[in-house]
Amino acid sequence: MNYTIPTTSHESVLYVSFGSLARLPHAQLVELAHGLEHSGHSFIWVIRKKDENGDSFLQEFEQKMKESKNGYIIWNWAPQLLILDHPAIGGIVTHCGWNSILESVSAGLPMITWPMFAEQFFNEKLLVDVLKVGVPVGAKENKLWASMGKEEVMGREEIAKAVVQFMAKEESREVRKRARELGDASKKSIEKGGSSYHNLMQLLDELISLKKTRTCEKPN
């Protein structure tokens, strides 16, 4: 990845990733690209190579962003943990997959939630309504079971508006505060004496005990 995340502006870059399974139709990719550009905020966008579908739009958009230095596209895979831990990252657009949620929470980052299918809509409710560290973009339909028609595509204006409001420090102050608090709590949980540390040690003890039991039960 030949890209240096800007370090001059704290929490100024938006990270965009929809995981390895979700696939956005071309019309939505176009609207998302324009929405990110029109927001005026710097971004890093991870796109699967096969989402190109033989179209040159994404290559042209990538070149345009390289020239403007306002956005960067990473194809197929990105070192997500390293990116999320960078101080310039101000949040993530996520499909609400559980792994991405855990990584974002651990980094203390708020999320723009854009669920695609299955339990991701329930995960969004947890982030938005319970933990209050997520801001919904407005996705309503399960994309695994339904085909996305033109009327169901999230428009560039809606996307740009959501990004602008999300990245504005004043408007998202409380969400960011809660995200940082949750991030601190998650780090404490893996320290010695923390809940995650305790659970892992308990699991190891049980596995060791199980091995000893099976060893004793073996016939001589």
TrEMBL record:
Q: Which InterPro entries match?
A: UDP_glucos_trans
> Is Glycosyltransferase found in the keyword set?
yes
Q: Which UniProt keywords apply?
A: Glycosyltransferase, Transferase
An example molecular function term from Gene Ontology annotations: UDP-glycosyltransferase activity
Name this protein carries in UniProt: Soyasapogenol B glucuronide galactosyltransferase
Could you tell me which CDD domains the record lists for this protein?
Answer: GT1_Gtf-like
Pfam families registered for this protein in UniProt:
UDPGT (PF00201)
Q: Which family does it belong to?
A: Belongs to the UDP-glycosyltransferase family.
